[in-house]
Amino acid sequence: QTRCFQHRLEGGTATALTLKWLGERVDAPTIAARIGEFLTNIGASLLKQSTGQAITLVLAFYLLFFFLRDRRAGLDALVHLSPFSNIETGKLIVRVRDTIHATIFGTLAVAALQGALGGFMFWWLGFPSPALWAVVMGVISIIPVLGSFVIWIPATIYLFLEDRWADAITLALWGGVVISTADNVVRPLLVGETLRLHTAPAFVAMLGGLQLFGAHGLILGPIAFTMTTLMLEFWRRRSDPELQEK
Fold first, then answer.
1. What whole-number distance in Å separates Cα of residue 241 and Cα of residue 101?
2. Residues 225, 128: one domain?
3. Of 24, 137, 193, 238, which one's alpha carbon is 20 to 30 angstroms from that of 164?
4. What are phi and psi of 220, to 5 degrees?
5. Cβ-proximal residues to 128 (8 Å cutoff; 6+ apart), any chain
6. Is there a single domain that holds both residue 60 and residue 121?
7. pTM to 2 decimals?
8. What is the rounded distance in angstroms from the CA atom of residue 9 to the CA atom of residue 215?
9. Angstrom distance (rounded) from CA 68 to CA 62
10. CA distances from 187 to 114, 131, 148, 152, 225 (A)
11. Each residue's pLDDT expressed in tens, for the chain with a length of 246 residues
């Protein structure tokens, strides 16, 4: 019992000395205040961003209602304000419409293709619920910032941890070469074919749009490119008398 008491006494003394040493060298109130300030700033930033996104979403649906209801009046006003002729303005409107349709169709088609490719490999490697993972990868592929790699990279790491080296290498190569390449090859092909553009300009328009406008540039980039080329064609026809006669 005496030894037990001595050990406890020594342990309590060591703990007290440690706490005293920490108290002399660590400013606990200042650290706590800084942590609280950091958490407060993060909370305020998240609240501000979520509120802004919610307001933007509400405004988007609010304006979409009027755009759909007063579509004809809006197009007439656009034709009236346009500096181009009615025929040229009509061509611009049709080109913008076709660009939006082609970009959306290309995005959905590529997402479905990437989901199918990922789901097939998951089925081949024996993962549970490959159809569910295919749907998840397809949905995530629509988001420009993310992609199907959010799913297949953790799956590859899991296979490495399970010592399934061959399966992990197979999934890594399939995801990095086949699934990722599908977005860079198939999307410009689909969009370029619909807009009657070469694959290279369509690809550059998408990359430039993403660089300038962020996620919205996936649609705004091709629109800006096609409108620019069409307006240059208008200018060329006006400046060349031989083309005006055709």
1. 34
2. yes
3. 137
4. -65, -35
5. none
6. no
7. 0.59
8. 64
9. 10
10. 11, 23, 15, 20, 16
11. 444 444 444 444 555 566 565 556 555 566 666 777 777 777 777 677 667 667 877 887 787 787 778 778 877 777 777 777 778 788 888 888 888 887 788 788 888 888 888 888 888 888 888 888 888 888 887 776 667 788 888 888 888 888 888 888 888 888 888 887 777 777 777 766 666 666 667 777 777 777 777 767 777 778 888 888 888 888 877 776 555 555
Number of domains the chain contains: 2
CA separation for the pair 175, 168 (Å, rounded) = 10
Task: Tell me which amino acid residue 19 is.
Answer: L
Tokens of 200: 């290279």
133 Cβ contact list (under 8 Å, min separation 6): 118, 119, 122, 127, 151
Please report where in the chains the tokens 């040229």 appear, as a residue.
88
Query: Is residue 42 in a domain?
Result: yes
Instruction: Pick the closest to residue 179 from 104, 110, 84 (CA basis).
Output: 110
- Integer Cα distance of 139 and 51 in angstroms: 24
